[in-house]
Amino acid sequence: MDASWGDAAMIRDRDAIRAAVGRLPEPKLNWPLEELNLIRELSLEDGKLILRIDLIEPDPGKRSEFRTLVEETLAAFDLRQKIIRINRVDVSRHGLRDVAHIILVGSGKGGVGKSTVSVNIAAELVRQGKQVGILDADIFGPSIPLLLGTAEKPQVLDQEVLLPVSVMGMKLISMGSLMPREKAMAWRGALVSGTILQFLRQVNWGVLDYLIVDLPPGTGDVQMTIAQEIRPEGAIIVTTPHELSRADVQRCLSMFSDYNIPVIGVLENMAAWICGHCGTEQPVFSGPDHIWEDIPLLGRLPLEKEMWESARNGVPYVTQAGGTATARVFARIAGDLISGKASK
């Protein structure tokens, strides 16, 4: 038998099994497993099936009945061996109860690399041994799933509690994981604010050392909802080092001040261009070196091909950058957050 034909047949069988099992209703919610994203593992090789399903149903007897239903469904397939694991999911409403530190990352305008900064700060905190989550609060332009290379959906659990996606050692909630990437989010403010409240209140974040909140650009409904709902430890403002950016940063500062949220500092992104041939660094914007007056400057990040490539590949820059100057900036920011120096 041709190997490629055999592989294709195995893929068809695997997809058929996923479709059949995915149609089975979760006993408590009576919704299909596939819609709830409760099929956590399904592999098929040489007739050996490994299947892992999470259930919300607390009753052991009903879970046992469900196992029988799964086995009856699988009887339609020619399988040499079946390993079926059915687990009960913890659906307690942790919310933010067990989150030690909340850090906001914002910007006065879009296109300054705020989400890239959020992902790399989070990834660096993980590198330094911390339990980290990312809340992608940019409802209209969610990009964190792309930057982390994941298309996985969060699980929808009992009473609409969400279980975050786990990716690269981080927990993630994003509208980009819940809706098709090509779908436009034409929502009014009240619906957006309600979604953010669900992300804050009805997500089983579990125990986290840090929750990084990637805010949308500007100072609108989402920022106000988050500021009113939680008590962040501080905020980082991402901007470009241009005189025209001063007003955008000032609006962010004013909003954070109105809600008594400390500003940790400003991070200048795209501050310089590094020549790919000679390595010479040239400033992109002309003007004074420091235009932020009394606001701490956390660092200056250059335009780097490697940063763009890591974003395109869905891998945080800091996980593969070694000891570059940019990686050291993120390491210093994460280290200052951990030591408490950043919030002083």
CATH topology of the largest domain: Rossmann fold
Which architecture of the largest domain does the CATH hierarchy give at level 2? 3-Layer(aba) Sandwich
CATH class identity of the largest domain: Alpha Beta
Number of β-strand runs: 15
Q: What string gives the helices and strands in order?
A: HHEEHEEHEHEEEEHEHEHEEEEHH
Number of helices: 10
Assigned CATH superfamily of the largest domain: P-loop containing nucleotide triphosphate hydrolases
Biggest beta sheet summary = 8 strands, mixed
**Shape field:** elongated
Mean pLDDT: 85
Biggest sheet strand line-up: 8-9-5-10-4-11-12-15
* Proportion of helical residues: 25-40%
* C-alpha end-to-end distance: 68 Å
Question: What structural category arises from helix and sheet content?
Answer: alpha/beta
Any idea what the radius of gyration is? Answer: 23 Å
Q: What fraction of residues sit in β-strands?
A: 15-25%
Number of domains: 2
